[in-house]
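Batch manifest, entry 17 of 40.
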Amino acid sequence: MESLIPAVMAQDADGGFRELVVEQVNQVEAIASMVPGCQPAADDKAGTNIIVFVVQNSVTLRALNTALYLARPGRDRLHLVTVVASGLAISQGQQLLAEYQRIATRSMMDKVSPVVLVRSTAGLLDAMEKYVVEVALSGNNAMVVMGSAQITSSGIDSAMGSVTLAFVRRMVGLPVIVVTQNSRNSPGPASKGLRVMLNVEPHARALLAMVCTRLLAPRGRADQLLLAQASVQRNLTRQQAANNRRLFDNFAHLARAHGCPAVRTYHLEGQADEALTAASDEYGVGLVALQLPTGSRGLAPSLLALIRSCRGGALVFQEATAGDKSAILTQFKEQERKSD
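Output type: structure tokens
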């Protein structure tokens, strides 16, 4: 033993040996991170384009504050976008954006792009969609943040006619965060932490990866991921209950593999929209994340009810599959080919 100690000390002091150890550790970490559907946070070094559509209403500031909390100065780019009817209104649009640009600058956001779109003969949604796709095709990740006053209005016609909801339906393949008058828990630049409640469903693994790596990647803040699974327990068979538990455990494992800073799990009793709405209020949730099933057409009434009543913002995402002609990027590329 006495002769072994000097040998170990000499080995530890050897530079070549230390490099070998580091190489082996890195290989182990790389293998450990190769979980199905798992992308390490380091893959997002290129940053994210966060697009905030600006209109003259009381909710736009809340949407901007949410975007500013999620943005990483020096890495992400904030796009402040408004749409005007004609070239005669461009100066008015610039004045509107200047107010919100000053707010972003005071929050230490250094990459801010104010953009005034002219609708002209194109429809409002078409102009918005074209800009988002152009940004998404630039190579970096893209995310849209919108504030809607119509969704929470008393008339159902206003909710059904909301530009925000119509735009969410078009964004297959890109995440959209919607904040409303009721989103009092949505984060702001001064918030010390964000609680994201993710609805656990079999098709929501892509959403989990996005939330962990792009929203909750370690930043030295008190952010938390709350995994929630809502069900009416008395209506479940024994096999269904067992499958739910396995799915829940799998999501918790994936979240930790993604390096999510803090993970909590909640079993909620009741229908998903009602249970998640109540939980967002009870647990101070700033963002409720939901992934639509692949191939969904439109928004279900239950999702609309959740967006309207949720105390946090709602992150809605639908994954685009290969060959999905409804995906926004696919549609845009087909239009480019036709124009060529």
